Every structure is written in C-alpha cells, then in structure tokens.
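User: Last request for today: this protein with 1-deoxynojirimycin, please.
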Amino acid sequence: MTDLKWWQKAVFYQIYPRSFADANGDGIGDFQGMTSHLDYLKSLGIDALWLSPHFPSPFIDCGYDISNYVDVAPELGTLDDFKLFLDEAHQRDIKVILDLVLNHSSDQHPWFIESRSSRDNPKRDWYVWKDGVDGNPPNNWMSCFGGSAWKYDPATEQYYYHFFLTEQPDINWRNPEVKQALWDAVRFWLDMGVDGFRLDAIGTIFEDPALPDHTSKYSQFELYKAFRFAETKEEREKYAPHWEAMFRYQVEQPGVHELMQELRSIIDEYDDRLLVGEDDNIEYYGDGNNELHLAFNFPLMRQPGRLTSDWIRANQKERLSELPPGAWPCNTLNNHDSTRVYTHFGDGKNDAPLARLSLALMLTLRGTPFLYNGEEIGMTDYMLEDIRQFWDTPAIWLYNMAVDEMGVPAPEALQLAAKSSRDRCRTPLQWRNAPNGGFSPPGVETWLPVNPNYAEGINVAEQLDDPKSLLNFYKEMLNMRKRTPALIAGDYEPLHNEAEDYLAFLRRSEEQNCLVVLNFSENHQNINFDLETSAINVIFSSQERESEIDLEKLSLAPFEIFIAELA
Ligand code: NOJ
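Assistant: Here's the final one, the structure of the complex with 1-deoxynojirimycin:
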C-alpha cells in the first residue's frame, strides 16, 4: 500500500462547477460555493476532485469551448477565488485536477479571432484551414455533434475544421507555436499547484492530412438515432462499425501518442501530478509509464439497462488483460456526458438497492473510482420539457434536424432531444428541501432548472439526518474502503464465472485477502465457496448478519453487498 501513488488510493469526485454550489445567489455555481462545501466532501470520504472546465467560455458547449486557458470564468469567480479553493482543498488533503481541452478552443478565443482575420495572419496556421472543392467543403467529414465538420468563413474564403461544434475550431497541433502556447497554459496551472488534468478528447487531436472522404453508407441522423440510442448490445454492435467508419479519418491518427509523451514529460518535471484520459483507448497508457496514468474504463458503463454480473466479468477480463504492465485501471459509472447512475442502472422498481450496488462495484473493483456530483444522494436524470430550456447544443441540433429535415412531430423530437441531452445530468445539486433545492435563493432562476424531486428526499440535508439514506451509505462505504487495503491495492480474481445473478471475486494484497460478493438479483442466493480460510471477518454487509459465517453455505439476501476478510 505504501508504495502506491496518491491517485491509486484516491476516490475521485467530479464537480460540474456551474451546478455544484451557488454562493452568490445568481443561479450559477461558483468557486466560493465549492470552497464552502469542501468540509462536506471531506466528510463524505472524497480524496480528490476533478473540475469540469472552469475557464472563461461563451458556453456554447457548456465550458468545453475555452476562450482563455489561463483564467477563471467570471461567473465562477476570480483567479484568487480559485487559488483559495485550491489551497483550502489541499489543507484538507484533497487533490484537485482540472479539465484540459486540447483539441479545440472557442471561436471567441483571441487566437482564433486573429487566425480568421486574414490568410496571412501569423496565427492562421494555429487552426486547420482548407480550400473548398467546387464550392463545397473540402470533404464529407462530419462533426460528431452533427452536420459537416467544415465551416466556411466568407472573410477569407476558406473552411475551418471543427470535430465538435462550429464554435469549437480544432487547434492545429502540427504548428509548434500553438503547441508551445498550450504547454505554457499547462505549466501555468501546474505552477499554481494543481494536481493534474483530465484530458478532453485527445483521440481527435489529429486528422488525416490527405483528407480522404469517409465511406459510411448511413446518414448521420440515422446513425445518431440507431447507435446513440441503442437499447440493446446487439443493436449497438450492429451500428458501431458504421459510426466508426464515419469518423475513421478524424480520430486516433498518427502523432497523438508522441504528443501525449511530450505532455507526460512536462508533467513529470513536477512532483507527483496526474493525467487521466477521457478516451477509454487503452493505448493511451503507452508502455504503462510514458503517456497517461489513467484512462477511463468506459465500456463498463456502456451496459444498456441494469448491470449484470456477466457484463462486468467480461469487461474486467478484457480491460485488465489489455493493460500494459504496471498500468492502473480507472472505473466510473457516470459523468457530465452520460445518463446518471441512478437512472441508467436502475429499473424503476429496485433503483435504491441497485444504486448501492453500483457504488459497491466502483469501490471494490481494482482501480481508481470516479464518482459524479449528486450521485451520492441518488440524483436522477431530469427531462427538460421545453426546447428553450436546453443548453446542450447537440441536443438542440438533433431537435431542429428531426423537426425541420425529417418531419418528426415536435413533441416526439422534444423527447428525443431530452433523452439525448446532456443537460439531463447537469442540473444543480440538490442541497435542501427548499425552493430551488437550496442551490440558489428562492425566486432566482437557476441556469438549468433544479429537478423538483429535491422535495422527495433527494437532497443532502435530509439525507444527512437519515442514517439509512443513500448519502450515509456512501459515507460508510467510502470510509470502509479507506480501512481496507485489499480493496485498494489488491489484485482481482474472479470466482464462479458462470454465476448469472451475482458477482464474486477476491481482492488480495500483501496485507489482506478479501472476498467480495454482489448480488445483482432480487432473489436470495445460496452460494458455496470452496476457499481455504481459517477465519472470516465480515467487513461490510448491506444486511444484518449473524456473526458465524459459513462460506460453504453463504446465503445472500436480494441485492446484498457482502465483503469479508479471509484470514
Ligand atoms: C468531451 C467532453 O466531456 C464533452 O462534454 C465535450 O462536449 C466534448 N469532449 C468536446 O469538448
């Protein structure tokens, strides 16, 4: 245990800054709000925070369109507010990593404003500019957020490339000056003491310079509907290759690993900092030591519907066997781009016990877990009911496309948009059973509406007072993990590979051996473990248990979480 790095032992918590805590009562979260809730996070048992972008931004992609890499969005506070937040977090032994968006800037970044001003501007080459072909875009590449990836700029009669929104022009990483400018920004935050970065969209940093057309035979809208909303694994698998074919020349191109190695060497000049890749591609671990320290295991959270033991076992088998030697896994079940864990892995009937199982899974699998703000109280997705409430631009695009181009009736298009919209998981944190969920003062219009289910017990204050609440369960489990070295440092050995209803595995470290059994079904399980052990000490069980445990006749209650130390 002692030779593990802080980020191998830590449990991370993602803060979506606009929605976490609003101290100045303007309907938008801010740094003072974050600072004043650090004690809450500490008592929850959180060790490290990842902040979604906190930089100045026109907010067309909710902060992932940065107009200044070395400052703080004024609505969130000042650089001094940030420094105070960082300092207060460090005083509580909480690390802080930031979001680093390298693929693109905002079109309002002064660099791009200069770049687009004339063909011979010194910053022209900081972005990707090309001539059109016979009055059309340079090729048929698509933006992953909808429509062509090329935007014509009449001022200089060329197209610029954007993998995401038109307001997010791609940076030309082949230009050494812009690279230097971004490395300077990286050093700016490292010098200030931040503990690392979560890297946004690195897979799209380079594109094929020959600009070949893609050959996908489906329209983007068809693929969007079929692939993004796939209800089953089979459906997803059917369309996944077409989705990949559409973006073949725009992702995972040569050069990106060398660039990550360069970034890693900068990070390594500093003491003990961290790089986490958004992209789940295992190759970003490099040789295990020369690129990113962590890359999210997203395939785990892509299970449609309830988690099953088969899915998890297959995921772990594949993921762990692919990791290069020495590399450390990293698991998550939700974030600001996905559906919330309570909604996604619930079934409408057993949501509460299923949410507890999801947490247990995160805290017992091998690797660093990332939690997302609000999951600790069981916040759910919130379906917006009026297109004017939406912030998430791709969802608005989908709505307009459905209504204008495909003739889909508006109510149906709204449902489609609400379901796909990332706004659904970004609503303000519900602090109390009070107007606006206690996030902002009564009467203030919050930037996204607060989910009204704060009045149904889904709020921090009420759950703190209820010993049986999900929040107190989070606290208990997070604290249990800290005391249980095998869950942090241990290896992972799956047991009972054929079991359909429950997941069982061993975690074994130098100090300790643990057995973990998670019953994902609503039925009792009678399990026979043939394990050599002289003593069994139950570390955690979600059920009342007698002190005598017989592993050969282990009876698990529906949805039970069982963790025992084997001596
Ligand atoms: C991934 C981020 O998580 C997402 O929110 C964003 O829209 C895209 N990258 C583009 O930056």
